[in-house]
Amino acid sequence: MPRTKSARKAHRQTQRRTEQNRAQRSRVRSAVKAVRTAQTPEERKTALAGAERILDRAGRKGLIHPNAAARLKRRLGKAGSAAG
Questions:
Q1: CA distances from 36 to 21, 30, 52, 73, 82 (A)
Q2: What DSSP string describes 13-77?
Q3: Which end of the chain is less enclosed by CB atoms within 10 A, N or C?
Q4: Domain limits at 72?
């Protein structure tokens, strides 16, 4: 356990950030899964738009690398055009 006042505060901040990052990562994974499991082209289109928004934000905020977000968006889009 942290002993000093500053170490206690840093520990609290780390816990808060960890929880927020976990929630955001879960949101990213759920959005990607929604695109991959969409049944109709309309469903897929709306899921893809939402996933792109979430991936862009995750890349901008540093949750994932911006290039990783771009790569995921590209792959999701290509899979949709091949399937539809």
A1: 23, 10, 13, 12, 12
A2: HHHHHHHHHHHHHHHHHHHHHHHHT--SHHHHHHHHHHHHHHHHHHHHHTSS-HHHHHHHHHHHH
A3: N
A4: 5-83
Burial-class residue 79 by CB neighbours within 10 Å (0-12, 13-18, 19+): middle
DSSP 2: -
CATH of the domain at 58: 1.20.58.110
Structure tokens at 14: 């780390």
- Single-letter amino acid code for the residue at 52: E
Total domains, the chain:
1
